[in-house]
Amino acid sequence: MDTETILTPLLDTLDLLGVAVFALSGALIAARERQTFVTMAFFALVTGVGGGTIRDIMIDIPAFWVNDPWIAPICLGVALIAWFTPHRWWEGRLLEFADGAGLTAYAVIGTAKALAYGVTPVPAILMGIITGTAGGIIRDVIAGRPSILMRPELYVTAAALSASLTVAFEFVEPMPRWVGWIIAASAGYILRSLAITKGLELPAYSREKPRGDQPGKSSTSDMS
Q1: Rounded Cα distance, 114 and 126, in Å
Q2: Number of helices and strands (H, E) in the chain?
């Protein structure tokens, strides 16, 4: 697969969608913290391009947004929208579902782009996951919020599903790649939507700490 394969209208649309959604989530975090517009614009840009930038650095190519005439203006435009609209417009689950769409779209884009540059399947999947999740992680770290990685809900898992299916469909003949991309993004989005509506989550580590390891207590103090 050559590099030009990635430059399709479908992936371009998914790319802009992902940037806009993640930029909005970043801007709204700044809005909740009552920050200035400059801070809001910074959060929008970092969240919108963070994952893709890390991916491109790993592939050893120029960051995707540096020479793109649309990416930075979209981030700044989204910040303006957030600045001039009431915060209550964005409350509830609407933003969560939109974020899920951006997450899975970015996971597909990141994986497909990695494959286009000759990255092998497993690292390509990991790059897809990074593309979909790293921007939000950077946003949360800068804002001092608990990262999505520290919660058991299905978020990274949804990105992993989309990325894995993107790779899997590369070996399905004669399926057009764009069909595989749509299926991959849709599958991850469905999983993320179920996590939002049904509370699906991964099991957390639950092995109890031995009582003898607890400070000030002996291992036999509570035996009955």
Answers
A1: 10
A2: 7, 0
Indicate the SS3 state at residue 120: coil
SS3 state at 210: coil
- Other Cβ atoms less than 10 A from the Cβ of 159: the count is 29
Question: Domain spans of the chain?
Answer: 3-85+93-201
Best CA proximity match to 148, nearest among 100, 89, 105, 189: 100
The string of pLDDT tens digits covering residues 91-138 is: 777 778 888 888 898 899 899 989 989 999 999 999 999 999 998 888
Report residue 175: phi and psi, to 5°: -60, 130
Residue 101, both tokens: 């769409």
* Among the listed residues 79, 85, 86, the one whose alpha carbon sits nearest the alpha carbon of residue 47: 79
Separation of alpha carbons 135 and 45, rounded Å: 9
Instruction: Specify whether the CB–CB gap between 154 and 192 falls below 8 A.
Output: yes
Q: What is the pTM of this model?
A: 0.81
Q: Please report which confidence band the pLDDT of residue 13 belongs to, taking 50, 70 and 90 as the band edges.
A: confident
